[in-house]
Amino acid sequence: MSRPGRKRRGIFRGKFLKRRGENFKSAWGKNADQRARDDTSSASQTKPDQTALEAIVKLAVESWRFIRVFEHTVSGLDAREASRCRGSADAFRKKIEEVLAAMDLRMVSIEGTAFDPGIAATPLNIEDFGPGEELEVDTMVEPIIMNCGGLVRMGSVTLRKMRK
After folding, report:
1. Based on the domain organization, do 24 and 67 belong to the same domain?
2. What angle do CA 92, 96, 100 make, to 5 degrees?
3. How far apart are CA 110 and CA 118, in angstroms?
4. By residue range, what is the domain housing residue 72?
5. Residue 32 lies in a domain
6. pLDDT (tens digit, 9 = 90+) per residue, 87-126?
7. From CA 138, how far away is CA 30, in angstroms rounded?
8. Within a 10 A sphere around the Cβ of 156, how many other Cβ atoms?
9. Most exposed of 45, 100, 108, 132 (fewest Cβ within 10 Å)?
C-alpha cells in the first residue's frame, strides 16, 4: 500500500537498489552496461544466420514448385472455380515474395528467354541438343534465388529449340 500523496516506485526503476550501492539488474538479469555492450554487438545478429537463410530459400523454392503444380491442376477446373483458385495462388505467391523481400531476396524466372551457358541455371536436358543450335528456356523447374549481392541459389531449367 502506498501513502496518499506519494508515488509508488517500481522495483525495476533502480533508485532503491542504487541507493544501497547495489548494481541494478533488469528482469532479464543484465545491468545497463551489459545491455549497452549487447546493443553494439547486436548489429551482427540482425542478419539471419546461414542455416535460417538456407531454410527460407528451400521453403521458397518448394512453395514456388507447389504453386506451379497447383496452377496446372486448376487449369482443369471450370472457369469460375479456376478464377477463385488462381486468386488464392496469387495471394500465396505474393506472401512468399514479401517474406523474401524482407530478407533482401527475390525469385527470378527466365522462362522464354534465350539460353546462354552463363545463366544462373542448370539445364537438365542440354545433352538433347547439338553444339550449334539456338536454344531458349522452356520451363523453370526451380527458380533462381538472388539477393542484392548476387546469386544465392541456382535454378534448374529445361530447354527447347528457339521458336522463330
Report:
1. no
2. 170
3. 13
4. 49-103
5. yes
6. 999 999 999 999 999 999 999 999 999 998 889 999 999 9
7. 58
8. 15
9. 132
